[in-house]
UniProtKB/TrEMBL annotation:
It comes from the Bacteria. Belongs to the bacterial solute-binding protein 5 family. It is found in: Periplasm. Residues 70-452 form the Solute-binding protein family domain. One of its GO terms (cellular component) is outer membrane-bounded periplasmic space. It comes from Pararhizobium polonicum. Signal peptide: none annotated. The keyword Signal applies. GO terms for molecular function: peptide transmembrane transporter activity. GO terms for biological process: peptide transport. This is ABC transporter substrate-binding protein.
Amino acid sequence: MTLAKINLRTAILLGSILVGASPVLAETVLHRGNAGEPQTLDQAHTSINIEEFILKDLYEGLTIYDAAGKIIPGAAESWSLSDDGTVYTFKLRADAKWSDGSPVTAEDFVFSLQRVEDPKTAAGYANILFPIKNAEKVNKGEVPVDQLGLKAIDDKTLEITLERPTPFFLELLAHQTALPVSKASVEKNGADFVKPGVMVSNGAYKLVAHTPNDSLTTEKNPEYWDAANVKIDKVIFYPIDDQAASVRRFEAKEMDLAYNFSADQLERLRKSYGEQVRVSPTLATYYYAFDTRQEPYSDVRVRRALSMAVDRDFLAKEIYSGSQLPSYSMVPPGMDNYGDPAKADFADKSQLDREDEALKLMKEAGYGEGGKPLDIEIRYNTNPNHERVATAVADMWKNTFGAKVSLVNLDVSSHYAYLQEGGKFNVARAGWVADYADPENFLALSLSSNKTFNYGHFENPEFDALMKKSYEEIDPAVRSKTLHEAEALLMKEQPIAPFLTQADLWLVSDKVKGWQDNAANQHLSRFLSVSE
């Protein structure tokens, strides 16, 4: 048989096979730019939103945020609440499974939440679940972990008992700290349970590869209960904290989503990409923290003077091109259960009047012209916008007080790790995005008992007492009044100087469908699709 005949017969055979074959659909891939490398993929140790974006694709909590940023059922298909508002009973989905095919059980959630509160875990965000009965006592080692207010009634029924009625509890359960882990996987694999090829997850996606500082790849989880409605096959996250590089990759069509870009590019990008540029107001505050453990930042006069000398209008208009708003309160506006936040008492003064008063306060404290020199180091996480803010603030303090100001920057993970681990500093940039739409989430950062996020180690018994009172108050109006008193005290003391109410800046390719701007900044890949 000649070669020509072999090739002809092969072609005929292949042709007959292909005619009867179903067309092979191309794999749908979403390329997501993330603003940095995650510190961890262990939900018990997560703290920043670049980790949250990944974890919420991999795991599903009892409740989740939909595409519009509203709370909806997640791993729990339904729940009921006792008449006194302290006992939730969750019914898990019968078809909720882990990526290894095993069922998601109530015991998995009991194990996961106990793990977060167990002091041996040292979870930095354990306080977010303190509304659960005995959670704070468990976390402090005062009672054993089995006394946490959790009970697996059966495999698919979970009961959670609270210390007191907590109106925002369903939102807490959608936080990344409350995401479950597979009890079997953690007990078998220990700390390695987060690794590709090992991780067992219950979300729309599963982890298949992770090259630090390069990419993290997830693929659709066929065991997910709603897999039939997940339209994207693969999601690749790129940890890019270089905003210019992120924009370039978006413009080159290498990325479909880019989170956070330099605000000075806003006008240019809008002209070029129109509605692909998204500026979404959010419940978030951009602030500087003062290390109150050391002089001169232990002196309220110095803190107030430094805060008053910062021209927030300049930061908002000149650096952020109007995409963010000047702020004089820790709690951002827009919370229906709180109303207008309590502002610093100098908020309504002109910038010139603020600077005059700031000079008087600094002189009283013995610093500045004719007094002790001011040597200030500003720490911030690497980012062009943060660098411009720090440079502008340094110039304001130099011009107003004759201060000598230096700047130090670290990547986002290292910056926050340093602050959370209690590292000493002078002044540090920070931002807080609402975990849930309640003022307590912002004010609790300054509690003396908050060892993780009270970066400046502020201690004020009166403030702590007001916050304690708010936790015990059931009447919403009285609780709001108490929280306003706490915020007013915080703004008088200025252990933190709020500068801006933030907006989220995204670049969203017109290929991406299903995107909805929302104040919670929640954009799970399972609600998106990609068209060519």
